[in-house]
Amino acid sequence: MSPDPPADETDLAALRDAVRKLLAAAYPPQERRRLLSDPLGYDRGMWRTMADGLGLLGLGIPEQYGGSGASASAVQTVFSELGAALYSGPYFACAGLAVPALLAVADEPSRAEFLPAIAEGSLIVTLATTEPRRGWDIGDVETQACLGESGDWLLTGTKAYVVDAATAGVVLVSARTPDGIGLFAVDPDAAGVSVRPVPGLDLTRRLATVELAGARARRLSGDDDAVAGLDRARSASMIALTAEQVGGATACLDMAVGYARQRYQFGRPIGQFQSIKHLCADMLVDLESAGALAHDLARAADAGEDMALPAAMAKALCSDVYFSVAARTIQIHGGIGFTWEHDAHLYYRRAKSAQLMFGDGAWQRRRVAGLLGLLVA
Q1: Which tens digits make up the pLDDT trace of 221-278?
Q2: By C-alpha distance, which of 242, 345, 331 is closest to 33?
Q3: Can you tell me the distance from the alpha carbon of 185 to that of 178, in angstroms, rounded to the nearest whole number?
Q4: Architecture of the domain delimited by 126-224
Q5: Checking phi first, is residue 266 left (phi over 0); if not, alpha (psi -120 to 50) or beta?
Q6: CATH architecture of 9-124
Q7: Do domains 9-124 and 228-371 have the same CATH topology?
Q8: Which of 47, 74, 281, 344 has the smallest number of Cβ neighbours within 10 A?
Q9: Exposed, middle or buried: residue 106 (CB in 10 Å: 0-12, 13-18, 19+)?
Q10: CATH fold for domain 228-371
């Protein structure tokens, strides 16, 4: 498959504007607040608009599976806007996690079954690879898959921090088989499957624990070890996650600068004080650096290059920058920034949660060192 051509800047700007208009109309701050206590966590009407009106659910899906086959840069643009708005729906689970896994690992019949349904918005799919008391490495898996007497695969184990599992129609599960790690499709309503929502630090992102007790599953990855494919999918997922982080950090900076202009103290805006100027300037410099690495990751994907190294580098810096910018945004706001009524804490929560997801900055920097051959055993 040839790499996607670079996205035209005009097209990206038009896509960005379309997503912003949708979010402004269907997901204003008051709607985001309302959905914090909604069990579903998203509005189905907006979901339909994302699928039918803008084609966002099929953006990164090849045309042969009902998508638009857009570039990684276009996918990054959408996730940046959703991150800036703290969108709470299962878009990250579907487009950011499940689609890369299906494209990297699943066999052709499975792609033909699941990807068109995701693109049209009729099926929510999520990915479950992490486990309690285990690391972030794709191969660090204890969940077992064995063949039953009837020839069906049976899965036993526990998956943790599964994004939007409570609303998913299919959960893609990594499990250990006699011939390596495999990827399996599990029906969350099937016997032996328990999906238990768990409270998370990020109030705008739903997490769940998925417990499997001899649950029937369908193997999607063939007979080969799927670790390499899932690792490529993880790198592709970093395009979405780092874009969300850059978008969220940008929103925080805009929020801080806006407040510094309108908040008066000692007869003048606090933005005129040198300490506030330095904070905002440092935030901007950090954000520009993070954005550059995130864009380089999308460029590598569009060019068909190996994404492992740029993904680890981008995740390391974007994680730390988003958290730092969110924390300094609260600092600039002062007392009001700590209150429940202000949105600053929601960005802070998302920043910390995203920082830890799939390995924080320190973990990713160790991965970078390993990929460069700099780690000493």
Answers
A1: 887 889 999 999 999 999 999 999 999 999 999 999 999 998 888 888 877 888 899 9
A2: 345
A3: 18
A4: Beta Barrel (2.40)
A5: left
A6: Orthogonal Bundle (1.10)
A7: no
A8: 281
A9: buried
A10: Butyryl-CoA Dehydrogenase, subunit A; domain 3 (1.20.140)
